[in-house]
Each structure stands twice: as structure tokens, then as C-alpha cells.
Amino acid sequence: FWSLIAMSPQVNTFLLNGLDARLEVNEQGEGNWTRIMREKSATAEADTDAAEQQPAQETAEPEPQSTSGEALNFNVENVEISNASVHYNDLSTGQSVTLEDFTVTASDITLGSEFPLDIRFRVETSQPQFAVDGSIKARIQANQELNEFAVSGLNAVFDMSGEPFGGESVTAELAGSLAANLENETASLSDFSASLANLSLNTNLNVKGFGDKPALEGRIEISEFSLKELLNNLGQPAIETTDPEVLKAIALSTNLGGEPGVVALSDLVITLDDTRFNGGGSYNLATGGLVFDLEGDKLNADRYLPPSAEGDSQGVGNGDTQTDSNTQTAGASQPETDLLPLETLRTLLLDIDFGLGELIVSNLTINDIAASTTAKDGLLQVDEFSGKLYYGSFGANATIDARTDNPKWRIRSDVTNVQTLPLLTDLAEVDMLSGGANLKVAVDTTGNRISALRENANGEISFNLAEGEFRQMNLTRMACQGIALANQESLTTTDWGTTTPFNDMRGTLKIDGNTLNNTDLVAALAGMRLEGNGTVDLEQTDLDYELSLRIVGEIHRDEACRVTEYVENVVIPVECRGNFAEDPAGLCSFDGSRFRDTLKDIAANAAKAKAREEVDRAKEKAEEKVQEKLKEKLGEDAGEKVKDALKGLFN
């Protein structure tokens, strides 16, 4: 008692053993502890209300502390709390919480000096079913003004189990030292570590300022861990990937710093299996602005995709119409959802630069990727997206204007000398075209769903291939079929091959919703000029093209395919129709219905040739008659002299 009066409370031992508190809330929401709590009297409530209503300036000002006053001298030799338990049961919600085996021991508790603290407990809940056994050991220190605290030698272990972890048992641990100064608004973590199952974090961190603009300085490291193992340890569903060995080596390390109110990361290193990212960034706590610059070496994104359903790979590129039909049916049965969270986009403030040495996605290999993205007030801009692709290169920029509920999309792209054969083969196992492609793409559309984007799309794609070949398709054979019919002969060649070389193929695709229209397809083939026009229905994956092979020279050594004067400059028709997702190589064939027009041209050419022959014969007969008359009148010698002049006259 006297120690309290002297402001120097001293207690030898504080002991609490066997506490068993049972708190219950009935179905009306009333707690049983209210029966032992004194209710406020009406007078007390009135006094409280009156005090709250007094103007601030009328409240008594705190008395200045005497500079000669002594700080609190607090000393407790021992604290022992053992076998304590608290049971809480809420009948209105069905929730129950139990704290049991609660033990606290501490000794030599003196302000300004360290003292040991040991806490042990078990907590259980019914909704959800959850239990944790915890133990905390540390050395605690507080100054006499109670505005500076320190914790050293922290060792806390929590063994958890129950529904949140799928019935699994999980251990979390904390260790290290902590310090805080409330007056100076500083805090620090020293050699601090935290772990959950196989996930471990280590940090040394200093914080200055407890308001909305703290300044951070330190370093954080997340040791390499397996995400798949972590999910299994936490009793969570597994992530299925095409490559079962991925997501098993993830790590992160970075320095922390920045101006007050900005969390800046430097020397950032992120490891994802075989991929390593380096860079830095910052986050503005006031504006939410995010700035990042990351460079990666190589990433195979296909390894992280969900595994294909059994049998899917058998239908790729071989006309598996049943698989395609099933896929379309499944897709049609799924309700369409919005692509972009518009409200979220409007709050983004981003400035991100990203680079990657190599990316494999959809079986395509892309090198030297560079991307630059900004976002502000709902306007998302990809200022640069470029890279190298199959011996060529590409560059693109895009804008998404999400400031309205009907976002606007703008895409511009240039592709230079990308080799089509390996690209199409790797992308879709399609072997139908080779050559270095150059493209210019300009597309605008609106909407926030795939169907709307397709329906509203407009623009054009211009393309040209300096040289290449059609594969799985011999246009020379188709042309020779028509020429042989015109010559009324049969082809004897059996080995035609499966390709058609070409030079300078070019054209323009006009985009109108789901339809691509092309009216100016041209290419130079051996002895022929390819001309074509048609449409592509992207929604139905349907192709409808009419090609014309204009004969401009010799095209094949087969005698039946010889180019006569009747055949030269006529058109051999070819049609390409059908579903290009099923069997691209079987789409094109000789067009017999249009060949009737070709036969008319051939007949017209033959008639012209016959007329020329008759004129030539008439000329010869007239020349002979004139020569005979001259010989009769002028003699043999004179007739020979004017012979050359007569040739000029009749020719």
C-alpha cells in the first residue's frame, strides 16, 4: 500500500491459478456478464451527456506536469498465471470460442530494464472449426514514460489446425527483435523472421513516421519455397499445371526505401523456377501510383497452363471435328462475362516497363520482348510492345479507353519478315504456308466482351510475302488439269509434289465485324499470276475464296499441259471453301463450274487464231497471183527484182 502512495508500486508475486470464466450470449443477444456489471444511474448518464455537450473551450485544461516530479517506479518480482480458461458461447450465432491452458510467467518486471515473458495458450473456435496452440517467449523492455518499448529474443510458435487448413496441421513462427518509440514515431524490426509452413520471410526494417507518410528503410527476403508444397501444407486445392515440376522454386528479395509516403523497391530479384526477374519499383501510399521496371531472362508460360484434357492433343491439326464441335458447344454453354473490371481500371495509376529475353506462349517463341504501359483515370495505354519472332520482328501499341461503360480499343501493329511456316506449325500445327510475312494491322473496336469486340471490329490488315510457297497444295497441278482439258489431252505426270512456290504475294484484308474481306490478292507463280478475292468468317471459322491462275508462260513439262496460243492469258479457276479449323490442306480444288468461262475464252482465242490463219493464206495467194502477172508482163528477171517490194506490200 505504501509503495502505491509513494508512486513506487512493488509486488513480490502476482499469482492467478485455475481461472475458469464462462461467458454466454443468449438468443436475444444478451450477455450473462451484464448481470455482474453495475448499470449507470440516470443521474450519471445525464452528467455524462452534459459533459459531452460542453464546448471544447470550457473543458478543463490539463495541469502542467511538474518538472520535478519523478517517473513511475514499477517493480514486480514475479507474475504467474496458470491453468486459466475462458469459454465464450454465443447462442444467437452458434459461435463458440475457448481459451484454455492459458499460462503467463514473468519475473523482475521493472520499467527501464528487460524482463523475461513466457506465454502459452490454446484457442478453439466452432465457426469455423479451428484450433491453435501458441507459445511466446521474449524479453520485454519499456521505459518509465511508457512511450518506448522493445522486444528481443522473440520466439513465437503457433500450431494451427482445422477447417481453414483442410484438416491439416500448420505451424507458424515469429522470431527476432522489435522496437518502437511512440514519441519519435519510429519502429524497427531487427533480424526478424516469420514463417508459415514452408514459407519463410526475413527482414531488417526501420520505419519513421506512423501517419499516412511513413518512411521505410531496410530489406526483405522470401526464401525459396515450393508453392505447390505450401498449398498442400495449408490444405488448399492444388494448382494443376502442364509441367508438374513448375511452381516449386519461388523466391523474392528487395531493398526498401523511398521518400516519406512512398514505398520504393530497389535491387528487386524475383525467381520463378528457371526464370529470374531484376528491377525495382515504387508505390505511392497517397495516390496509389505504381511504378515498376522489370527485366526477365526467359519464361515458358505454356508450362504453367492447366494440363490438356485427355485426348485433346490428338485432335490438333488433323481435322478432329468432333473435338472442335465439343469445344464450341462447351464454350457456348458458358455465360459470357466482362473482360475488364472497369471501376478498378479507372482507379489505376501505373507506369510499368517490362522486358523479357525469351517467352514461350502457345508454343510460340518470342525473343527480346519490350513493353511499356501506363494507366491513368481509366485510360490504359500500351505505348510499346515489341519483340523478335521467328527470324522477324514485330512492334505494336494499343489503347483501351475505359472511361465509359463501353470501352474503346485501338490496336496498331507492324510485323516484319516473320517466317510463317514455323510460326503456324508451332501455333496450330498447320503446315500450309511458308515465307517471310510483312503485315500492317490497324483495328478499332468497342465493348467489354469477346462477342462485342468481334462484332464491332473494323480496320484492315495489309500483308505481303516477298517469296514463299503454298504447302499441302499444288496449284500447278490444278492449272494443268484445266489446260489438259482445253488441249483435249490427258496428263501423264503422277509426281506433282505438294508445294507451290510463289513470289511477291500481297493483299489487304478489310475487317468488318467477324468478317474479313479481301479483293486484291495477287502473287507471281511459275508461268502464272495468282489473283483472288473472298471472305473469311471468323465466327464460323469459314473460308470462301475464288482464286484465278492466269497463264502467262510455260508452267510444266507435261505435254498435255503445254501452253498454246489458245491457252495463253486465260484463267484457270480454283476455289477454296470450307472450315479452315478442320482441314486447311483440303480447302482448295479445281473449280469446274467456273472453268466453263475459261473454255469460252479458249474458244474465242482459237477463233481469232483461225481467222488470222485464213487472212495469212489469202495474203499468200494474192501475192502469188501478182507475181505471176508481173513475170508475164516484165519477164523473169524483172519479176525477181520487185519480189521484195511485194512482200512489204502484203505484210
Structure description:
The chain is α+β, with helices and mostly antiparallel strands and 651 residues long. The chain has a domain at 607-650. The protein is built from 11 helices and 28 strands. It has helices at residues 2-5, 42-53, 227-233, 321-333, 342-347, 420-428, 450-455, 475-487, 592-634, 636-641, 643-650, and strands at residues 10-17, 20-25, 75-90, 95-110, 115-126, 129-142, 148-162, 169-181, 186-196, 199-208, 215-225, 250-257, 262-272, 275-284, 290-300, 349-361, 364-376, 379-389, 392-401, 408-419, 433-446, 458-471, 499-512, 515-525, 528-537, 542-551, 571-579, 588-590. The chain has a 28-stranded mixed sheet that branches. Helix 9 packs antiparallel against helix 11 (643-650). This is AsmA family protein. Residues 319-334 have a biased composition (Polar residues). InterPro entries: AsmA, AsmA-related.
Architecture blueprint of SSEs:
Elements: H1 2-5, E1 10-17, E2 20-25, H2 42-53, E3 75-90, E4 95-110, E5 115-126, E6 129-142, E7 148-162, E8 169-181, E9 186-196, E10 199-208, E11 215-225, H3 227-233, E12 250-257, E13 262-272, E14 275-284, E15 290-300, H4 321-333, H5 342-347, E16 349-361, E17 364-376, E18 379-389, E19 392-401, E20 408-419, H6 420-428, E21 433-446, H7 450-455, E22 458-471, H8 475-487, E23 499-512, E24 515-525, E25 528-537, E26 542-551, E27 571-579, E28 588-590, H9 592-634, H10 636-641, H11 643-650
Parallel strand pairs: 1-3, 2-3, 15-16
Antiparallel strand pairs: 3-4, 4-5, 5-6, 6-7, 7-8, 8-9, 9-10, 10-11, 11-12, 12-13, 13-14, 14-15, 16-17, 17-18, 18-19, 19-20, 20-21, 21-22, 22-23, 23-24, 24-25, 25-26, 26-27, 27-28
